[in-house]
Design goal:
- By secondary structure, this protein is an all-alpha fold.
- The chain is 69% helix and 0% strand.
- The chain has five helices and no strands.
- The model has no long low-confidence stretch (mean pLDDT 84).
Length: 75
């Protein structure tokens, strides 16, 4: 919105469609950067450790299989 509402007397940049496109481009590039970096980090972590748990662990319950705890006493 600053690209549409900017005033040259305040910050030296006037409102224009070009300024709006520059800002939208910055947002898009930031989103792409965040996606790529997250993807790379997940691939590295996936090579080092198991990210997704096994189906059996999920069905049995992650509290019980990973932490050896139960939320409710089922006696």
């Amino acid at each position: 919105m600053i690209g549409l509402l900017a005033d040259k007397t305040v910050n030296g940049v006037g409102a224009s469609f070009h300024q709006l496109l520059v800002q939208v481009g910055g947002v898009v590039l930031t989103a792409i950067y965040a996606f790529v970096l997250t993807y790379v980090l997940l691939k590295i972590l996936g090579a080092v450790t198991q990210i997704k748990k096994k189906k059996k662990q999920i069905e049995e319950g992650l509290d019980k299989t990973l932490l050896e705890e139960t939320a409710y006493d089922k006696n």
